Amino acid sequence: MSTYVAECLCKACAVELTGEPGWACYCHCSQCRRALSADYATLVGADPDKIKVTRGEFRSYSTGKEERYSCPTCSATVFADLHHLKQRAIYNSMFTTPNHGPDGKIADGPFKPALHIFYTSGITKVTDGLPKYEALPAAFGGNDKQVNEDGTPKE
């Protein structure tokens, strides 16, 4: 069984994912955008028992629906507990195994996002042919309402 490692920037804190992620997506919600200071987040998720803290003590911030964990030293946000989905998610850019650099494999296989969530609350439109959801797909407990790449409702 494969083990994947995600670390903060200063390497004081780390988590491991045992086995393959259950899903990978792009999230455009305001919480992800603000937490990462980015246009959207790329993350993989799994059942919480598959993602364990292996080094350091993270600090956390909760919005109720999710709790994000970051390093108290370098402030890098590494993972989140998605309480509303009963899942734990790791931000793809924090993986060091697999490597996410120019020779890395982070965009391949189970780490390659298959959809966009909370797309209409985002600030960036992405033309990639992937399904885009107004909120969440039915598999995530959402209304399954898809939108076009420009954010307009699908007919």
Automatic annotation (TrEMBL):
Keyword Zinc: yes
InterPro entries assigned to the protein according to its UniProt record, in alphabetical order: CENP-V/GFA, Mss4-like_sf
Pfam families reported for this sequence: GFA
Domain CENP-V/GFA: 4-134
GO molecular function: carbon-sulfur lyase activity; metal ion binding
Keyword terms: Lyase, Metal-binding, Zinc
Keyword Zinc: yes
Record-stated family: Belongs to the Gfa family.
Protein name per UniProt: Glutathione-dependent formaldehyde-activating protein
